Amino acid sequence: MLLSVAIGSLFGTDATTLISISLGAGRAEEARLHLSQTVAVSILAAAAIALLTFLFMSPVLPLLGVTAALVPFAREYRRPQ
User: Fold this and answer.
1) Nearest to 41 by CA among 10, 3, 2, 1
2) What is the residue range of 33's domain?
3) Residue 11: CB partners within 8 Å, gap ≥ 6?
4) Does this model's pTM top 0.85?
5) How many structural domains is the chain composed of?
6) What is the DSSP letter of 79?
7) What is the rounded distance in angstroms from the CA atom of residue 5 to the CA atom of residue 51?
8) Lowest mean pLDDT among 16-20, 35-39, 41-45, 76-80
9) Distance, CA of 50 to chain centre
């Protein structure tokens, strides 16, 4: 979750700066383009993180603090029905 927050903050801060500069220079269309690109890249990054954590669940679970006794339960919880 911390990784998601960090990436979200990265995109949010970057987008805010670019959009503010564009709007301040009177380039509204460029600001819309920055917003659209930021939303698209954020969605792709979230999907990539979700896919990677799903595919590589076994090595990721201990990094998240899951103990060996809880790994089967965590896998069962994470798997789609």
Assistant:
1) 10
2) 2-78
3) 38, 41, 42, 45
4) no
5) 1
6) S
7) 17
8) 76-80
9) 8
